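Antibiotic biosynthesis monooxygenase
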Amino acid sequence: MAEPDIHPITVAIERRIDPARTVEATSWMQAGTDLATGFAGFLGSGWVRAGEASDLWYMLYRFRDIPTLEAWEQSPQREWWLESGRTFADEVRVERRTGIEGWFDAPFATDVESRDAGGAFPASTATGPIQQPIPAAPRRWKQAVAIWLGFFPTNLLASWLLGFIPGFAELPLVLRVLFATLALTPVMTYLVLPWVTRMLRPWLQRGS
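Structure:
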């Protein structure tokens, strides 16, 4: 049996909202985030409008993994919430981001109307939602370059350091690779890739 995906799952939803129902839609969008906060695995959510004169609204939420996401998406509470907005909200596009692509998600600006997993508003949301669409992920070749820039020096350093361990070079190739990947995976995940993508973010987002 395949192991469940334990990576955080980010879902971005694009909807068209009846401009005459903006006040109702604002309350409706917030009600959706309020409902999601009560589900296990909820990591946060937010929504933005493409522009004051635009009917495009974007909602984004994140869960711990696929099972917790599906528990929310298949819940009667969410079905009731979606049904309550059918008359003024039309879903246009849904996008999921998971695994390594999550490292390249552009963060929300500080004025986005959003709540954290505890349901509290950040202090910076006092000005209301910003008029800005959700940024797209960087191009695939740029993601590959960023990963390589982190992986090459990390792997080079690790190979040099492992050479000082007595008897390591005499181990079978499979065991050497196993030990190296076990050591490097958390380093890449929690230290190297977040740092590389933060340093390269202006270049990664340019032209996305």
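The two ends are 37 Å apart (CA to CA).
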